[in-house]
Amino acid sequence: MADIIQLLPDHVANQIAAGEVVQRPASVVKELLENAIDAKATSVTLVIKDAGKTLVQVTDNGIGMSVTDARISFERHATSKIKSAEDLFNLHTKGFRGEALASIAAIAHVELKTKNEDSEIGTHLTIEGSKVISQEPAVVPKGTTISVKNLFYNIPARRNFLKSNPVETRHIIDEFHRVALAHPNVAFQMLHNGSDVFNLPSSNSRQRIVNIFGSKTNEKLVPVSEETEILKINGFVLKPEFGKKSRGEQFFFVNDRFIKSAYLHHAVASAFEGLVKNDIHPGYFLFLEVDPHSIDINIHPTKTEIKFDDEHSIYAMLRATVKHSLGQFNIAPILDFERDKGFDTPYDYSKKQPTAPSIEVDRDFNPFREKAKQGNINFPFKREQSQSWESLYVGLKDDAPAISSLGDIEFESEEVTGNLFENPETETGQISFQIQNKYIVSPLKNGMMVIHQNLAHQRVLYEELLKNITVKEAVSQQLLFPLQLHFSKPDVEIIEKIREQLEHTGFIFSQLKDETIEISGIPVLILESHVVNLLSQLVHDIKEEVPESGFSQNDMLAKSMAASMAIKTGISLGKEEREHLINQLFACKEPSVSPTNKPVFTILEVNDLDKKFM
Predict the structure, then answer these.
(1) Burial (Cβ within 10 Å: 0-12, 13-18, ≥19) of residue 420
(2) What is the DSSP string of 255-272?
(3) Are both 76 and 195 inside the same structural domain?
(4) Do residues 246 and 137 both lie within one domain?
(5) Which residues pair with 223 in a beta bridge?
């Protein structure tokens, strides 16, 4: 039998490796930014076009590369970070696999310009699909510039799996945040399609967080700091009242490397126990420093998960440190052991012996006597002589109506009934009940119907909002004092993109720039106090999955706003409100399902009830 096992060609092996290294344009951004940091750069510029599908370019002022290094850097398993297997457990750099540039060059058009400090002239290298097209000297500044164009040009199937541009841009911004937060001493700049997205000067950790997430973030931060023999913790946690339903602002860094750890997240969440609700996630920016020999970062293809030697001790220290910071800055309730001077013994009585108090009682006292009999006890006061108790009835009219029978007596006590439902209605017409402030029960001819009030209201609001956005007719209520809301710059840009649709629902924006949003009018269906939560949830939903412009985007906006504005579970509804909601529901086009395709109501027939008692 002939041999059937053979070695793969290099360009095929590189494409297979690229499947692990390069999943989307954000993966390219991560690898190139980390290479710039390892090159000791103090200034890094990221330029992307069409969410990185057309161009990803990273320029740094690092140490650069020689002609030989520039050429060999695109070979598989070529790296300057490690030389032996022992070096894997003493890593102080980002990239160490030697597959990043080789994988990127296998699936894109790559152009490299670099020069080190000792060389008078640099190198210009062009590679397409792992094939070197040209290599020639060039006059370039010190540092390195790598341009990755037409990502996945030779793998169309992979390119078709990419999401829409807004979604891919969000992933790129996430990777940019992770690198920028880990290195506040490095200046970063990011441009997308020619517009400036971030311009972060060199600063400290707190200022870097504020520059990325907005100026209002400064007042939300609580410092965290602790140093032990095995662990050093620095960073910030957000105050409990600024927790979110989504896991957005949660960052762990171990030795300046971003990681994901459900175990460490549980430690932080347990420190916030009792301060936030169960469905609210606290935010944090925590930087951990440990001995490189005590961790293993080579357990995951993307290197975002690591293994600790003594994770139980790290868990306990992290939890205790966060809890201590929350108490130290009066965020969490603590016991106050300070002595109150008001309870101190006065100086004049400090040397006197305490005496037992004595009580003297006049046992012959009778308030109904004309004159109280005085005993041998001398009282310090003299009780005034009062009229006898019979005088209380003097002056009453004798012609008061007499009670003929007990039936004429009216009692003020409330009648006790054993009703199963809240607020039962016995009037003629439609009768409805509310159970646990969650379900509405309405009787039918052959049984009863149970309606989920939150999902029913979502369906009503969804169709109304979708109609307003499409028809562009909505009623707005003017605010006496405009609302000024503060969001991060990327969030404001998201709201700017959907401004027209929001205005069709009833919002009126008087100002929308930088990190400030000023609203002078809101839809009549929502309260002024709910605007912040509604817009925050809307921005979160858009970040998760943004459809292309058109009906699909309007549909997503209507779903998100309906979920935020709908009546929540636990709200008690009166008879008129219940009847109005039922009538609105069955006036909808699809009353049986919610906007997220959940059943809105169910019908229990008499036969179904009879079977329960067989």
Answers:
(1) exposed
(2) TTEEE--HHHHHHHHHHT
(3) yes
(4) no
(5) 236
Mean pLDDT for all residues in the chain? 80
CB 230 within 8 A of CB 277: no
Given the structure tokens 């990127």, which residue do they identify? 104
| Domain of residue 229, residue span | 213-328
**What gap in Å lies between CA 335 and CA 139, rounded to an integer?**
67
Any idea what the CATH number is for the domain that residue 546 is in? 3.30.1370.100
Q: How many helices (H) and strands (E) does the chain have?
A: 16, 22
96/243 same-domain check: no
Question: Do 218 and 165 reside in the same domain of the chain?
Answer: no
Classify residue 4: in a domain, yes or no. no
Percentage of the chain beyond pLDDT 90 is 17
Q: Which amino acid is at 22?
A: V
Residues whose CB is less than 8 angstroms from the CB of residue 375 and which lie 6 or more positions away in sequence, other chains included: 362, 363, 364
The phi-psi region of residue 64 (left if phi > 0; otherwise alpha if psi is between -120 and 50; otherwise beta) is left
pLDDT-derived band at 418 (thresholds 50, 70, 90) equals: very low
CATH, residue 25: 3.30.565.10
What does the DSSP 8-state code read for residue 599?
B
| 3-state SS class at 412 | coil
Q: Is a pLDDT exceeding 50 seen at residue 115?
A: yes
Q: How many domains does the chain have?
A: 3
pLDDT digits (tens, 9 = 90+) for 536-563: 888 877 776 655 444 567 777 788 888 8
- Does residue 542 lie in a domain region? yes
Residue labelled with tokens 């991060």: 488
Q: Mind spelling out the 3-state secondary structure of 274-330?
A: CCECCCCECCEEEEEECCHHHEECCCCCCCCCCEECCHHHHHHHHHHHHHHHHHHCC
The CB density around residue 500, as the number of other CB atoms within 10 Å, is: 10
The kind and range of the H/E element at 205 are: helix 205-213
Max intra-chain CA distance, the chain: 132
- φ, ψ of residue 72 to 5 degrees: the values are -80, -15
**Which of 280, 309, 328 finishes a domain?**
328
Asked whether residue 2 is assigned to any structural domain, the reply reads: no
Contact (CB, 8 A) for 37 and 46: no
> How do residues 267-294 score in pLDDT, each as one tens digit?
998 998 888 887 788 889 999 998 888 8
In this structure, which amino acid lies at residue 438?
K
CA–CA dist 70, 64 (Å, integer): 9
Asked if residue 242 and residue 157 are part of one domain, the reply reads no
Residues linked to residue 594 through DSSP beta bridges, in sequence order? none
Q: Which of 200, 223, 252 is the last residue of a domain?
A: 200
Strand pairing class (284-289; 295-296): unpaired
Does 378 reside within a domain? no
Same domain, yes or no, for 193 and 251?
no
Q: Which residue has the tokens 């950790």?
A: 205
**One-letter amino acid for residue 581 of the chain:** L
Q: CA angle, corner 58, sides to 54 and 64, nearest 5?
A: 140
Q: Is residue 236 located within the same domain as residue 150?
A: no
What CATH code is carried by the domain that includes residue 311?
3.30.230.10
User: Parallel, antiparallel, or unpaired for β 284-289 and 250-254?
Assistant: parallel
Task: Return the closest-CA partner of residue 183 out of 208, 220, 153.
Answer: 208
**Is residue 153 located within the same domain as residue 30?**
yes
Q: What is the pTM of this model?
A: 0.68
Distance CA 552, CA 39 (A): 44
